[in-house]
Amino acid sequence: MNLRVLFKSIKFAFRAKRRVFTFIIIYAFLIVMVSRGLADPGEWLLWVFAAFVLATLYAVLISQSRAKDIAILKCVSWTNADILLVLIGEVVLVSLTAFLIVFQVSVELLGLVAYFQPAFDVGLLTALQGLLAVPAGDLFITLFVIVILQLPGLFLAQRRAMLIAPMRALREE
């Protein structure tokens, strides 16, 4: 694995700030909802399917929006494996950032409730904790599930990226 290309792809992802930040927020809510769904035996399949659809949609969206960039990279002799690392870099950035945000919010809410509970009635904080906080074990299982569910979308995105002709970079659009 070419770590240099992977790190460049993470830097490259920040060029599309609006899309990346939007999907970080979407993935954060997805992590919370999937972890809730995995805890409920009746609804876990629905949330796993929703995570699969969203992960596949995001990977395809990356390959579509990066078509000209991928064509330029192919012109300068990047291989298809390097192109896959570009796609993986953005997905890893979004997934891990969303995971860290949910983890941080969960820890902060747990700390606030524990700190203020002896002195005050913390109904609002307890309600927020019940809504947004995710237990650590469920959080790591959810991250693993979402990463596994992104693999088909990444391979579909790579397949689409392989079909992009390098000459597309030289065309005026």
Mean pLDDT: 82
What is the radius of gyration? 19 Å
Percent helix among the residues?
over 70%
The total of helices stands at: 7
Features:
173 residues, mainly alpha, 7 helices, 80% helix
Topology:
Elements (H helix, E strand, L loop, with lengths): L2 H11 L3 H23 L4 H22 L1 H9 L4 H37 L6 H10 L3 H27 L11
Describe the structure.
With 173 residues, the chain is mainly alpha-helical. It has one domain (3-95, 135-167). It has 7 helices and no strands. Helix 3 (44-65) packs across helix 4 (67-75). The mean pLDDT is 82.
Task: Summarize the entry for a quick read.
This protein has 173 residues and is mostly helical.
